[in-house]
Amino acid sequence: MKILIVNTSDTQGGAARAAYRLHTALLAQDVDTQMLVLNKSSDDYRVIAQQRKITKYFNRLRPLIDSLAVRFYKERSKALFSPSWFGFSNIVDKINEINPDIVHLHWICGGMIRVQDLARIKAPIVWSLHDNWAFTGGCHIMWECQKYKDECGACPRLRSNKENDLSKRVFKKKQKAFGLKKDMTIVGLSRWLNDCSKSSTLLKEKKHVDLPNPIDTKTFKPFNKEKARELWNLPQDKKLVLFGANSATNDINKGFKELKDALKMLKDRDIEFVIFGSSKPKSAPDFGFKTHYLGHLHDDVSLVTLYSAVDVMVVPSLQEAFGQTASEAMACKTPVVAFGHSGLLDIVDHKQNGYLAKPFESEDLACGIEWVLNTSNYDKLCTDAREKVLREFDSVVVAGKYIKLYKEILR
Questions:
Q1: Which CATH architecture has domain 2-214+394-410?
Q2: 299: left (phi over 0), alpha (psi -120 to 50) or beta
Q3: Is 68 helix (H, G, I), strand (E, B) or coil?
Q4: How far is the CA of 162 from the CAs of 73, 91, 141, 142, in angstroms?
Q5: Residue closest to 151 by CA, chosen among 164, 133, 132
Q6: Is residue 324 within 8 Å of residue 342, measured between CB atoms?
Q7: I want to staple 135 with a disulfide (CB 3.0 to 4.6 A). Which of 77, 101, 200, 339 is the partner?
Q8: How do residues 126-183 score in pLDDT, each as one tens digit?
Q9: What's the pLDDT tens digit per position in 283-330?
Q10: How far is 391 from 322, CA to CA, in rounded Å?
Q11: 149-172 burial, b if ≥16 CB within 10 A, otherwise e?
Q12: Is 20 within 8 Å of 28 (Cβ atoms)?
């Protein structure tokens, strides 16, 4: 069985890390697996990318070129919108040249593949959805919009009032391509995302499977808290609250605004706040207690020691396909507070391994943080958090389910 995992990058970004983890988990189960990417950062010889300097430089320009059509919408929101019309990367030709038994797509935007070229892939497709893009007219985060259930147009993300706008044209291209590509199986990383996809016009006719991102629990495991705090130069005598993601304080979807409001409501002042994924801004907010800005982290060891150093991880995202940082923290025995919404519903069990606040109420988020920090049941919360990850998200468990799916498709 020969599997080709396709993602824009191999290690940069949440979807890339998830795809690469699946790649390594499958290799550990003796599955013949390769990755095909536009931008390669690792030295893994099983990750294929074009190595010529001019090609590497051109690949960096692809997201910019692909976004040109979006730039005509001057009033658009800051949320990412991908038309995927730019397709001179010959990725599909490379896929067919490799000739795998199954092509496993992950995040393929940023000018990697034209929508219409998906129909040219010869092998059956398994597609793990990391956001809403596959079943919308181009937006990655749909929030309250329900147009994907019918037909896009007059897109709220583009702030367009025209029915025949860019979202409608992208929608039509997808509709044609997906209609031609019959052997496509959709994997939702959470029950919520799967339900969204199954209710969409574009993908409702496809087979759907609910499978999470894998976590290597031999890497993501508890580390001595005192030593972890010493490594990060964090205080031993404070309750530490952690928040982090790529562009943690700038990405509106990560819920930093809601978290800021919640922190100001905390009655317990014996707290310090820790942020990764962002450097200290010029005008840093004052929460009334010390804040540590750790910048961007680039390796799993740093994440493990940081998760182990703190008392609670807060994931206040407005929408999550899965919630990778939540599962990573829980694997390190750190309880998670999150809004009870989207993919996080599959990860956090209310008052069993964390706290699910009412969406999107900062006051209840603050209640959740204080409940976790002060509950007499804290040690059990920590133990149950790791047990949940071992049971449902461990890389061996998830890889086994993917292998079963691949075999079913090939039969």
A1: 3-Layer(aba) Sandwich (3.40)
A2: beta
A3: coil
A4: 11, 33, 20, 18
A5: 164
A6: no
A7: 200
A8: 999 999 999 999 999 999 999 999 999 999 999 999 999 999 999 999 999 999 999 9
A9: 888 888 899 999 999 899 999 999 999 999 999 999 999 999 999 999
A10: 16
A11: eeebbebbbbebeeeebbbbbbbb
A12: no
Q: What is the mean pLDDT of each run of 10 residues along the chain (411 residues)?
A: 96 93 97 95 91 67 86 92 80 95 96 92 98 97 95 96 96 97 97 98 97 97 98 97 84 92 91 92 85 92 97 97 97 98 97 97 97 97 98 98 98 91
Show the tokens assigned to 200: 């969409």
C-beta separation of 109 from 84 below 8 A: yes
Please, how many CA atoms are within 13 Å of residue 276, restricted to the half-sphere of its CB? 21
Integer Cα distance of 316 and 339 in angstroms: 6
Tally DSSP H helices, then E strands, for the chain. 12, 13
Using DSSP, state whether 221 is helix, strand or coil. Answer: coil
Q: Kindly list the domain boundaries of the chain, sorted by start residue.
A: 2-214+394-410, 225-392
Topology (CATH) of 225-392? Rossmann fold (3.40.50)
Closest CA to 325 of 203, 390, 242: 242
- Classified as helix, coil or strand, 195 is helix
- Laid out side by side, the sheet with 32-36 consists of 47-48, 32-36, 2-6, 102-105, 125-129, 184-188, 207-210
Rg of the chain, C-alpha, whole Å: 21
- Sequence-distant (6+) residues with CB within 8 A of 84 are 66, 108, 109, 111, 112, 113, 114, 115, 138, 170
Indicate the pTM of the whole model. 0.94
54-81: b (≥16 Cβ within 10 Å) or e: eeeebbeebbeebbebbeebeebbebbb
Residue type, 40: K
Contact 314, 276 (CB under 8 A): no
Is residue 300 within a helix (H) or strand (E), and if so which, with residue range? helix 300-309
Peptide bond connecting 135 to the previous residue in cis, omega within 30 degrees of 0: no
Q: How many CA atoms lie within 13 A of 130 on its CB side?
A: 18
For residue 311, give the H/E element and its range.
none
366: three-class secondary structure by DSSP: helix
Integer Cα distance of 142 and 268 in angstroms: 36
